Amino acid sequence: MQKYLGSFTIHNYLVIGFLAILVISIGLISNNVSKVRDNRSLAASITVKLPANGPGFFNGVSGQFPNSGSHWDKVDESISDDDTTYIRSSSAGSKETFTHKPLSIPTGSTISSVAVYVMWRVESQTSDNMSVILAKSSANLKLGDVPGIYTSYVDSAQSFTTNPFTGGAWTVADVNALQIGVSLPVGGRATQVYLRVSYTPPPPPATPPSGGKTSGGGSSDGGSSGGNISGSGNTGVFNPSSFTGTKTDPNILNSLKITLSIPYLLGEFALPVKIGSFSSTLNIIPGKSEYELDVKGAKFPLGKDLTVEIGGNKVLTKKIKVKTKAPKQPAKFGSLYLGDTDLDDKVDQNDLDRFIEDIGNQSEFSDVNADGEVNSLDWAILLVNFGKTGSK
Ligand SMILES: [Ca+2]
Ligand SMILES: [Ca+2]
Ligand SMILES: [Ca+2]
Ligand SMILES: [Ca+2]
After folding, report:
1. Ligand in closest contact with the CA of 85
2. Residues with CB under 5 A from ligand 3 (ion)
3. Pairing relation of β-strands 255-261 and 328-335?
4. Which residues in the chain are classed under CATH 2.60.40.1120?
5. Is 166 exposed, middle or buried (0-12, 13-18, 19+ CB in 10 A)?
6. I need a labelling partner for 309 at 20 to 30 A (CA). Which of 21, 33, 106, 200 fits?
């Protein structure tokens, strides 16, 4: 009987052990799956809006409101201002085209569609339609008839998945050489003309097959789950910048209570802070959003306006104004963005090119999320923040 119980117990332990391993494996797998999903959604199709920004080949639309400035500046808003500014046609089929804000996307992206949008209306019902225009030159243009006549503003569009002038896939040069515009009926008003371009950024370059990096992969998993643990802000990590001096001087600014967040950060790093000629660093910890910065040494008087600049070390700079009302003053920065690996305060093609160089030798410059590895997670952050600039 006892023997039976004993073997039953061992069997039980084996089953429990097996189930435990199964649960842990499922946990790890789902963690990896969600990471891969994150990457995919981060790298999915992106759409950019490129408003009119200058005169084009055609300028047949006679009127504009207000009647000063240029026609293009009546249709260049990123959000429609309706009848506040518009161009107006007094003859049927008068054409007007514009240049547009240039397209800047990562090299190797695939452009999936290019669409001309015109926000327009007529003053009264007429029999004429309007047409959107896509023009390569004054002699080479495509007109898309848009059905319907409306007396309140509507956004009409024509979309092209391939370049109608070549029949081939769109390139950045094709898009940037295009002019966009409209052919309006009598009494037709256009208030907004823009291009919408959808593209898919290039996939991340493959991580080099280096045996030494397998253990790195394991530690990266550990790092990411560590970063997700809530309350990691209160781990009692010593922050030297908040520990100089103990007395509060009531006549000067003693400290800034800085709040910020850095999306996708997985590791710790030093973030530079500047206030005029005073400079310091914050030891940033993933998930922690409040920091206290001792500024007694700068002896800023109370009742003063300060510009506090934070950024550098892969983070785009952000400046905010802080009035020194009390010895301890809050300074709210909101979100800060990673990805400026070459410190020119922009996330652009140069940072992507640098990543491609750095992935081979795992250079820390392109370890954007500070998890100790240069891999597709860093690439995805570069793509998400592509085109962002700091305030330097
Ligand atoms: Ca305008
Ligand atoms: Ca307008
Ligand atoms: Ca950069
Ligand atoms: Ca990394």
Report:
1. 2
2. 340, 342, 344, 346, 351
3. parallel
4. 255-338
5. exposed
6. 106
**Ligand nearest to C-alpha 79:** 2
pLDDT band at 283 (very low <50, low <70, confident <90, very high): very high
CA distance 262 to 339: 11
Residue 327 has φ and ψ, to the nearest 5°, of -55, -30
What are the Cα distances from residue 164, in Å, to 39, 52, 181, 231? Answer: 33, 20, 16, 55
Q: What is the pLDDT of residues 158-175, one digit of tens each?
A: 999 999 999 999 999 999
Distance from residue 265's CA to the centre of ligand 1 (Å):
38
The yes or no reply on domain 45-200 and CATH 2.60.120.260 is: yes
Q: What is the pLDDT of residue 44?
A: 72
Residue 373 CA to ligand 4 centre (angstroms): 4
Q: How far is the CA of 24 from the centre of ligand 1 (A)?
A: 58
Peptide bond into 102 cis (omega under 30): no
**Which regions of the chain carry the CATH code 2.60.120.260?**
45-200
CA of 66 to the centre of ligand 2 (A): 10
The pTM for the full model equals 0.63
> How far is ligand 3, taken at its centre, from the CA of residue 346, in Å?
4
Which residues have C-beta under 5 Å from ligand 1, the single-atom ion?
A: 73, 76-77
Amino acid at 124: S
